[in-house]
Specification:
alpha/beta; 16% strand
């Protein structure tokens, strides 16, 4: 063989070896992985809460209305059975896949909110005296749920807005560290579990209601910011719910009583747009200080039959959120006739959805900002 050919063969062999080494190099695989999967940070969302009973046509309608977020709450189709042996609900995971597929198809992101776990007694919220806050075994079950969700959803891309860890937790004002009441400890454990499987999607941390036993007073979720410890994670969001004053937002749902208007006076305080903003001072100051940490008003509403008062209330809540660049999701879309924005705003007994319903028109007027460059 001529010397020139020998040199060419040596060069080809070396290049082939280097190429194979690069291909099989674990560090190179990580580099490739980073190219293939971007971080999906939280964005500005304006949307609604939905249930697992939603269908493709509903989501198509929602997308056409301009909403860009669905907070998927699953208390009626829990991911894990609520009683021992605490088996996973395969149908719930299957429905989650379908909703993600539809959300991807129509361009509406999904915030996954399991809403209820073993150890909780109320279908729609968490209570401070739930067994959940008394035994670490229930925390371990929550961690298993999130391990499964993150495993299934880590590669689903931008259709996932984030993982909403708990719904409306409640802790005592003197919350003791290292106990089952320690919500920060629980959040750290869940975060660590999720990040082993999914490093790209936003984790959403619900602020807790805070109960002061000595004063026998329950403070809203915005007050929970005083107990919350910022997790060691860069892709996070803080969540609050706005149902203040409760006498207006939950009137005549479970039992009949005198109608409460809005604005309204409660215990010497006039609840209007100004006071609604004032009582959230701690959260607002937090939001200003940590402008890199987004805030979500995950739920807000009043019974649909509160008429124009309800319209004013929703407008005030949304305007406060818009003022501070908070995302928001109305409670709720085609989930329960009490809150249904497509129905009458005055007649409780009229549960027929109609085009151009006032409450839905209000929401759509704000959804339109999702497509603006503001």
């Amino acid at each position: 063989m001529k010397p020139k050919h020998i040199i060419s063969c040596i060069l080809i062999t070396l290049l082939s070896f280097y190429s194979c080494k690069k291909k099989n190099d674990p560090n190179n695989e990580v580099a490739q992985s980073k190219k293939e999967f971007d971080i999906y940070p939280w964005k500005q969302y304006r949307g609604v809460n939905i249930s697992c009973e939603i269908n493709e046509e509903d989501i198509q309608f929602l997308a056409q209305s301009g909403a860009n977020l669905m907070r998927l709450s699953t208390p009626i189709c829990t991911f894990m059975e609520l009683k021992a042996p605490y088996q996973f609900n395969k149908n719930a995971f299957k429905k989650l896949d379908s909703i993600l597929d539809w959300g991807e198809k129509y361009g509406v992101a999904v915030l996954i909110d399991p809403h209820r776990y073993p150890g909780t007694t109320h279908k729609w919220t968490m209570l401070g005296n739930d067994p959940f806050w008394k035994n670490f075994k229930y925390h371990d079950l929550v961690i298993k749920v999130w391990d499964s969700i993150a495993t299934q959803c880590s590669n689903r891309g931008k259709v996932i807005a984030g993982y909403d860890l708990l719904n409306e937790p409640e802790v005592p004002v003197d919350m003791q560290k290292g106990t089952p009441h320690d919500i920060n400890l629980l959040y750290k454990k869940i975060t660590k579990t999720i990040r082993k499987k999914d490093s790209v999607h936003t984790i959403v941390y619900a602020l807790p209601r805070v109960y002061d036993r000595e004063k026998d007073e329950l403070y809203g979720y915005h007050k929970g910011i005083t107990l919350f410890e910022i997790p060691d994670d860069t892709n996070i969001c803080i969540e609050t719910h706005t149902y203040m004053p409760h006498s207006f937002t939950h009137q005549n749902i479970w039992r009949e009583g005198e109608y409460i208007p809005y604005p309204t006076e409660v215990e010497g305080k006039l609840w209007d747009a100004t006071y609604l903003e004032e009582v959230q001072t701690e959260l607002i100051e937090f939001s200003k200080k940590y402008s890199n940490i987004p805030v979500l008003v995950g739920e807000f509403s009043s019974p649909r039959w509160t008429g124009e008062d309800g319209i004013r209330y929703l407008t005030d809540v949304i305007e406060i959120a818009e003022k501070y660049n908070w995302s928001w999701s109305y409670h709720a879309f085609r989930e329960n006739q009490v809150w249904d924005p497509e129905m009458s705003i005055t007649d409780r007994n009229d549960s027929i959805r109609v085009p151009n319903a006032p409450r839905w028109e209000l929401l759509k007027s704000y959804f339109s900002k999702n497509n603006s460059k503001e």
